[in-house]
Design goal:
The protein is mostly helical and 458 residues long. It is built from 17 helices and four strands. The chain has one domain. Helix 6 runs antiparallel to helix 14. The longest helix has 32 residues.
Length: 458
């Protein structure tokens, strides 16, 4: 199975410079395209959005803003996280797409920096706009509205949380060519090595009591899910339903064992009261097992889903979501924050989490947030369709090494900047540092600009 994986929008020819309509894109999709990959990408982001809206309980009491995870107050809700924590699917799809992109770049004679620019461009355009808008909002709330530092910290770190994915995914993209070479040379041994490394990190972390060690698993765990995507791209997963179900069963069995040995939380999102560790910040070996479970299940239903996606209606819906997917992801927690403010301003009482009234209120609440998000996406989705801001270069071979060094340096700066925003928000009350790197929002903004400039010049 060798399907195209470039942007659906970009794969449709433009007429006289006019961007094709979504209906035209849907109707002219080539038969060789793996539509199920696009569906999994849209589906996983949709589950993330609704999962966050379901789990986040934000309370406003005067000037005090607090956030509680519904998992902490609703018994057995953690069961839902085995299906709501779908980021492994997104990285799996990323492995498929990056595999196709690396090979296409090599066939066209492109350089490593050309590959990075093409993969990073659509991610960073809406992210830069998102960060810029929120830097201005945070400054306005503090300097003009006089919002309390703690309330501003909670708000800005909440809306910035989706950016964590960008930091990790940029790292995965940077390593994708090397990981694909490992896949081509050693196959399953590369996957096994990543899983073993993730387990070793957990063992060292728990044995030494140094939680910072666990952050290494942001690489090993998510590269594991990404590596599985290579097997889908080369057809290994395509025809053996027994192999697909074996992968799912192995992941499920491993999760069952790991979550019952008294170390790992049964929740795959955050932690529960009394848990020793969280499984996703930093990620643990449990997310490796979850990735196997979700990928196995997802691939086992590919055939009927592909037939369904051959219909015009479902496929147009997938195309529509993918055309604005970064805008949906980046702005969905801003919609949540706006919804909380609106409900508080209206003086509407909020039912206690987990009560019958709370559950009955969920569909109304979700619909309200969908309306708010639709408004935000209508404003900001245009930044996903601009022409590239990182055009591929035509550097001669004598300068190729310099171009590679510049592009790697740029990627590192982008990873630091996006991770910093995710950790500290857009207006921390004090200048923060992480591993000796300044994490003040204006320092992060400078790092973001420098990273983009280095990539552009590479």
């Amino acid at each position: 199975m060798r399907a195209t994986s470039s942007s659906v929008i970009q794969s449709t020819p433009r007429v006289h410079g006019t961007k094709p309509s979504l209906a035209a894109v849907a109707s002219t999709t080539p038969a060789t395209r793996d539509r199920y990959v696009d569906f999994l990408r849209a589906f996983s982001i949709g589950v993330v959005v609704f999962g966050h809206w379901l789990m986040a309980i934000v309370e406003v009491d005067g000037a005090r803003v607090s956030q509680v995870n519904a998992l902490a107050v609703i018994p057995m809700l953690w069961l839902a996280t085995w299906f709501l924590q779908v980021m492994p699917l997104f990285f799996f799809v990323g492995g498929f797409s990056n595999s196709i992109a690396v090979r296409a770049n090599a066939l066209s004679g492109g350089r490593y920096s050309d590959f990075l620019k093409r993969r990073v461009d659509r991610l960073m355009r809406p992210t830069i706009v998102f960060a810029g808008v929120w830097l201005m909002i945070a400054a306005f709330l503090k300097l003009v509205m006089g919002i309390d530092n703690e309330a501003l910290r909670v708000a800005s770190t909440t809306v910035a949380r989706p950016v964590w994915f960008l930091g990790v995914y940029l790292m995965v993209v940077m390593l994708a060519p090397a990981m694909l070479r490992a896949h081509e040379r050693v196959g399953l041994r590369a996957v096994a090595a990543l899983g073993a490394a993730a387990l070793a990190v957990d063992v060292i972390r728990f044995a030494t009591g140094v939680d910072a060690v666990g952050y290494v698993n942001f690489a090993f765990v998510w590269l594991f899910a990404h590596q599985l995507g290579f097997f889908y791209a080369d057809g290994t997963f395509a025809h053996s339903r027994r192999r697909q179900l074996a992968v799912a069963a192995g992941g499920f069995a491993a999760l069952g064992v790991l979550t019952n040995i008294g170390v790992y939380s049964p929740s795959m999102v955050g932690g529960l009261p009394g848990d020793l560790v969280s499984n996703n910040h930093p990620p643990t070996i449990c997310i490796v097992a979850l990735a196997a479970l979700l990928v196995g299940v997802a691939i086992s239903v590919r055939a009927p889903m592909t037939r369904w996606l051959a219909r015009r209606g479902p496929w147009k819906g997938v195309v529509t979501v993918n055309s604005m997917i970064m805008s949906i992801y980046l702005w969905h927690l801003t919609a949540l924050a706006a919804g909380v403010v609106a409900i508080h301003a209206a003086g509407l009482p909020q039912p206690g989490a987990g009560t019958a009234a709370w559950w009955l209120w969920r569909p109304v609440w979700m619909a309200f947030l969908c309306v708010l998000l639709a408004g935000l996406v209508a404003v900001f989705r245009r930044f996903e369709s601009f022409e590239p801001i990182l055009p591929a270069g035509r550097m001669r071979s004598a300068a190729a090494l310099q171009g590679t060094a510049a592009s790697v340096a740029g990627m590192i700066l982008l990873i630091v900047a996006t991770s910093g925003f995710a950790l500290f928000g857009f207006y921390p009350s004090a200048v923060a540092s992480w591993m000796g790197i300044a994490m003040h929002p204006w320092a992060l903004t400078a790092e973001l600009a420098a990273g983009m400039a280095l990539l552009r010049r590479s």
